[in-house]
Specification:
The protein has twelve helices and 17 strands. By secondary structure, it is of the alpha/beta class. The longest helix is centred in the middle third of the chain and has 31 residues. It has a single domain, classed as 3-Layer(aba) Sandwich (Alkaline Phosphatase, subunit A), CATH 3.40.720. It has an eight-stranded mixed β-sheet with strand order 4-3-7-1-9-12-2-13. The structure holds calcium ion (CA) (2 copies). One calcium ion binds next to loops.
Length: 446
């Protein structure tokens, strides 16, 4: 049934699930400590992309790029303030394409950018043209912000190492309410073709979840990121977001915050489970494509770094799963893919005519055969004040230039150094590889 041509295609629904600030610390990605049984179940029903990368590890630039299908240098959205319609009023977003094509298009929670936690319960930086209906739940996490413990009080709550062990049940939290509302929409719209976007606010800081999720991760048992002595000596200063390392937070406290991040992941994962259960019980699993993505990754202590806005693997890489009815199940794809590829992929799967200007490439060939030939690398960039850091990732290498190389270069061999401990840029033995990657980087940032 899948990809058959010459016959009328069945009209797939799309359940589009977004997590906020979720890295790859999940069971299905090989993490044996974090409990994510529901995202793992989804991976078992589809294809897990093992080398998926975001285009700009910060909420709004990343989400804008994914949802418009355009690279950040085209949308020019590099910050959390400007709305992409200001410069690009005529763009057709991914949900808008579905809306224009006879689908019911709805959003529950955070899909376009929202300030977290400040804008929970509002429309945030939404794009009204993308949806027929929007719902903005607000849970007790919002009401209990004064109870949050903040280890970095000089940082705003949306960018702090901060948590709160909540009382009450899952569905009193914003993300729980989001699923409750999403299920109501599924029940109401199950006979229409729909594009339903469900956007979670967790695990984004402040890490708030009911107590039972914190109980899974006693701080003393949390495995901290591997660090080696003098790791920072070969890293350009511009590459570092968290200064001083760990913002000076001591190990005992870092364990608490690290466990709190994982509690937030398991809480969000449980909400994914409720959604998948509803899809099944409503008889929608057989005609609904499920896509799960995070807007960017998250450092949890690697190189002394926390959160996003860096070009290290943990920040650039994202969990990304697609499950297509009748398609391959429980497969992994190791090709380098970009969040930018989601737009053309969903358009192709649903036989919609995508705009010709899209920056990504349909992943349909990889959904048919995850080992298909593929020569497209992944590009990621960040802004540091007035300069950019730009990165290209192939299946083996990561190569970064800061301010076009004037403020440093990094080259990492992921075959031998998956932690990116040893910067090989400028080393004679790697001059040939570096030259090739520099040319590839330039291709991505013309
Ligand atoms: Ca985010
Ligand atoms: Ca190093």
């Amino acid at each position: 049934m899948l990809f058959r041509t010459g016959y009328a295609q069945p009209k797939y629904n799309v359940l589009f699930i977004a997590a906020d600030d979720l890295n790859n610390d999940l069971g299905c990605y090989g993490n044996t400590y974090v409990q994510s049984p529901n995202i793992d179940r989804l991976a078992g029903s589809g294809i897990r992309f093992d080398r998926a990368y975001n285009q700009f590890p910060l909420c709004s630039p990343s989400r804008t790029s994914l949802l418009t299908g355009l690279r950040p240098d085209v949308t020019k959205i590099y910050d959390l303030k400007e709305h992409f319609r200001e410069r690009n009023p005529g763009l057709v977003t991914l949900p808008q394409l579905f809306k224009n094509s006879g689908y019911f298009s709805a959003r529950v929670g955070k899909i376009f950018h929202y300030g977290v936690p400040s804008q929970i319960g509002t429309n945030g930086l939404d794009d009204p043209d993308s949806w027929h209906q929007v719902i903005n739940p607000k849970g007790r996490d919002k009401d209990e912000e004064d109870q949050v413990i903040n280890l970095t009080p000089n940082r705003g709550l949306g960018s702090a190492l901060a948590w709160h062990i909540a009382g009450g049940a899952d569905d009193e939290q914003t993300d729980g309410l989001i699923v409750t509302e999403a299920i109501k929409l599924l029940e109401k719209k199950k006979s229409d073709p729909f594009f339903l976007a469900v956007g979670f606010f967790r695990p984004h800081t402040p890490y708030i979840a009911p107590k039972k999720y914190f109980d899974l991760y006693p701080p003393a048992t949390v495995p901290l990121a591997r660090e080696i002595e003098n790791d920072l000596d070969d890293i350009p200063d511009a590459a570092l977001f968290t200064k001083p390392p760990h913002w000076g937070v001591k190990e005992a406290d870092r364990r608490k915050v690290h466990g709190a991040y994982y509690a937030s992941i398991s809480f969000m994962d449980a909400q994914v489970g409720r959604l998948l259960d509803a899809l099944k019980s409503l008889g929608l699993s057989d005609n609904t494509i499920v896509v799960f993505w995070s807007d960017h990754g998250y450092n949890v202590g690697q190189h002394g770094q926390w959160m996003k806005q860096s070009l290290f693997e943990n920040s650039a890489r994202v969990p990304f799963i697609i499950s297509v009815p009748g398609g391959l199940k429980n497969e992994a794809c190791g090709r380098t893919v970009e969040l930018l590829d989601i737009y053309p992929t969903l358009a192709e799967l649903c036989s919609l005519k995508a705009p010709e200007t899209l920056g990504g490439k349909s992943l349909a060939p990889l959904l048919r055969n995850p080992r298909s030939a593929w020569d497209k690398p992944a590009y990621t960039q960040v802004r540091r004040g007035q300069i950019f850091g730009r990165s290209v990732r192939t299946e083996r290498w990561r190569y970064n230039e800061w301010d076009e190389g004037k403020q440093g270069k990094e080259l990492y061999d992921h075959d031998k150094d998956p932690d990116e401990f040893y910067n090989l840029a400028g080393k004679e033995a790697y001059a040939g590889v570096q030259k090739e990657l520099a040319a590839l980087l330039k291709k991505g940032f013309p």
